[in-house]
Amino acid sequence: MKVAILGAGAMGSALTIPYSEKNEVVLWGTEYDVPILEKIRRGEKHPRIDERVAVNDILNPDELDKALNADILVIAVSTEGVMPIFEQISDSLKDQVIITLAKGFIDEGEILTIPQAIWHERKDLKRNIAAITGPSIAKEVAKKLPTHVVYSSLGDRTLKVVKEYLETDYYRISLTHDIVGCETASALKNVYSIAIAWIRGIESRKGNVTMNNLKGIIVTQALREIGTLVRANGGKTETVYDLTGIGDLIATFRGGRNGMLGELLGKGYDIDSALKELERRGVGVVEGYVNAERAYRLAETLDHKGKLKMEELPLLEGINDVLYNGKDAEEVIHDLF
Amino acid sequence: MKVAILGAGAMGSALTIPYSEKNEVVLWGTEYDVPILEKIRRGEKHPRIDERVAVNDILNPDELDKALNADILVIAVSTEGVMPIFEQISDSLKDQVIITLAKGFIDEGEILTIPQAIWHERKDLKRNIAAITGPSIAKEVAKKLPTHVVYSSLGDRTLKVVKEYLETDYYRISLTHDIVGCETASALKNVYSIAIAWIRGIESRKGNVTMNNLKGIIVTQALREIGTLVRANGGKTETVYDLTGIGDLIATFRGGRNGMLGELLGKGYDIDSALKELERRGVGVVEGYVNAERAYRLAETLDHKGKLKMEELPLLEGINDVLYNGKDAEEVIHDLF
């Protein structure tokens, strides 16, 4: 098969490695990716995955059309970039498999998962879209370390294709139809990761005590609330308690940008100084921050529709209070507890 | 109420602190506890919790009878010690609440949880027994850091008593009737923690790569199998996906004796050299090791009864192979994956 990966960030670039085992792979970069494309062309390692990508061709920002004759198109940009890219390619799409991997919500007046936002534009593509969720840190995928992810799609042919052509012995793929549940859970994972990381900050604020009991409480509560939101949004409980929910949480909850933001908030930074500090450190977009407000609005909508009650989501309420209402993280934890 | 804690180890001693908020507490020590009892009498901190215990009286090994006039008796010895202590007190028991906190299985020909083993001896006490599960590292309980545990019992009066007299604002208590599920899950958590810790060992064997994706996979699989075993043993799925299962796993999976044993096995030690190394480091009984063989036998029994199939438990099979059949942990992970 021909696979085109749209976006040369960490995950898109890492996927060239398993995908090239059975397929011809091209990597297209956005304007932001130009310095990376140049490195790749010079045969250097990709700086964010510390490995060389495995591609048959590299395409510049102005060569997007050349990517579109692929059988499988992977939209590998961050949540904010997905719909702008999709608008550009939408008219040329026929029956390709389209894979999305950003973990966030899209605001189209109502709060949608990424596949829902695409269906909104092109209902006829409903069965062509697959989403990747589960524990997959890009660097580890690139190093061929054991990884097992979930590809979800409403289309049986789509699931068959991704399993047959994209699975390798180090990059294992499970399949499910619960694409809305997978995408809801993985977007929420980023949001709740912020609160889980508060505890690290609180520990250091208190002079490096360890508060593992509290970590157990907060992770359990996060998973309860993710379960509530996933079910209310039409997804399945088992998605939360498998690779997509727990698996991803375990793989990522000690690191990442959401974790850095959460830790600063736990230390007592207010949101503005925390974001400034991350900027100073050169940390880019914090997906969990952008998505927390959307998660909260999704919850409110689901409450209005009678699908859940906001009182079932005290931790989400607390996250919203810390990120948008100037409340202190330790105080939120105290009230919650 | 009068509370008697039988066993002056880390957890029993830590519990004196929340328990003494509303009750009169006495702490009885076994022969193994004599040096600790002496320290406590001299007003020193308990070495394993780094805090002073909060007690009205300290009882020596030969003063067990003095403890038995309590309203609440806490059997706070390790799994192996529970039944010997119970035999000693059984004849004097009337209508006390009896609390057990060891996390293991008991071998009475068939493999039983601790409450089941006690019921086996004294059916009339079925509703008097409560078990403590969930994330509770003793040191953190002793330091009054936020802790939320689960007390399970078949007896409503028992649940009412523990909630009313033992809960404090830093030591929160949830209640459930699923005592068999709680005890099965928490005993299994120790067993599966060994396998989760293999990965740390494998990471260092491979030159300190990080394998967080693999951690996500193994924790997810561990919880799946714990769920299968809990259901087959008569417990509830939600017990696994709440404080007792996930919460405890999150609080403890990076530390503890099970983790130390698992890490050595992951590094490539065989079981004999790993146990010798732990002995050299002065590490006591590894509950997960003792219980792994019992967990495996429980699984086989449940298979024979048609309640589950051994094929559903590949990780337990792998743990058994590493601990008892000389197989290498990395090879097991490879086969599993």
UniProtKB/TrEMBL annotation, chains A, B:
It comes from the Archaea. Its EC number is 1.1.1.94. Pfam families: NAD_Gly3P_dh_C (PF07479), NAD_Gly3P_dh_N (PF01210). It is an enzyme of class 1 (oxidoreductase). Residues 178-333 form the Glycerol-3-phosphate dehydrogenase NAD-dependent C-terminal domain. One of its GO terms (cellular component) is cytosol. InterPro entries: 6-PGluconate_DH-like_C_sf, 6PGD_dom2, G3P_DH_NAD-dep, G3P_DH_NAD-dep_C, G3P_DH_NAD-dep_N, NAD(P)-bd_dom_sf. GO terms for molecular function: glycerol-3-phosphate dehydrogenase [NAD(P)+] activity; NAD binding. NAD(+) binds at residues 7-12, 138, 257. PANTHER family: GLYCEROL-3-PHOSPHATE DEHYDROGENASE, GLYCEROL-3-PHOSPHATE DEHYDROGENASE [NAD(+)] 2, CHLOROPLASTIC. This is Glycerol-3-phosphate dehydrogenase.
